[in-house]
Design a protein that fits this description.
Length: about 250
């Protein structure tokens, strides 16, 4: 029942050597789909659906999108409607994916989600309100896999490192949730046996209410890294640069 059509995800995410860093349709959890944003508990009009496992509520692209390109980054801005039982629209979602030109330090990809209930409030929660949900990341099998995460005050970041399939040398994927996200900093969730790490949203024990006309904005930066885990000063520099860029006027 979990092998269902899906959308609103990134796969494959390529490493700097062309390796696939993400997994789609894994045998153990066929609904897992690369880097995807979805919640396992979506409450609407007193009933519960599962956008994560593709039950009752589905994100459906509308065909409204804009693609731009340039010397610094390429970007897609696309609209989806979450539909209850593939019929009634309940939530509007706009997603911006901005991929920057590769540099000596790797490549960064900024994700921004604007999620708004349409007519009635919608509640979002993690599985059991304390497990997984939000920006989900199912990665490829990684040799010498290592997960790291750091939280100190508002500063929070994590990463997955090792040799991804098709690569000869180590690489990694760094994750920076933005400090202006609600319920920041996240309590990191990881399942090493599933090659899974994520900054969950909302906070444990919370059912976040989407209200009509009041969008929820969530921002994250991914950094495709070449090499072993970077030292702390590199993490700090990337975190500072991300927050300076967004504060400087992303529109």
């Amino acid at each position: 029942i979990y092998s269902r059509p899906r959308s609103n995800y990134i796969h494959p995410l390529y490493g700097l050597a062309g390796e696939w860093m993400t997994e789609d349709w894994p045998v153990d959890h066929p609904h897992h789909r690369g880097i995807y944003w979805a919640w396992p508990e979506v409450d609407y009009l007193g009933e519960r659906g599962d956008l994560h496992a593709l039950q009752r509520v589905f994100a459906c692209p509308t065909g409204r999108y804009r693609v731009t390109d340039g010397p610094v980054f390429a970007e897609i801005l696309a609209e989806s409607l979450w539909r209850w039982e593939l019929a009634e629209p309940m939530v509007q979602e706009w997603t911006r994916i901005r991929a920057y030109r590769r540099s000596a330090a790797g490549r960064c990809i900024d994700l921004t989600f604007y999620i708004t209930a349409l007519k009635q409030p919608v509640l979002l929660a993690r599985r059991g309100t304390n497990l997984y949900g939000g920006l989900n990341m199912r990665l490829s099998a990684i040799e010498r896999q290592k997960f790291v995460h750091h939280t100190q005050g508002k500063q929070a970041w994590a990463g997955a490192f090792g040799v991804f399939p098709g690569a000869k040398e180590a690489g990694g994927l760094l994750i920076f949730p933005h400090a202006e996200n609600p319920h920041h900093p996240p309590d990191w969730v990881e399942y090493p046996n599933l090659n899974w790490i994520q900054p969950p949203f909302p906070a444990a024990g919370v059912r976040y209410e989407l209200k009509p006309g009041k969008p929820l904005t969530l921002r994250y930066r991914l950094w495709v890294w070449n090499g072993e885990e970077p030292p702390q000063d590199v993490w700090q520099a990337h975190w500072n640069a991300y927050h300076l860029a967004v504060t400087g006027g992303e529109t």
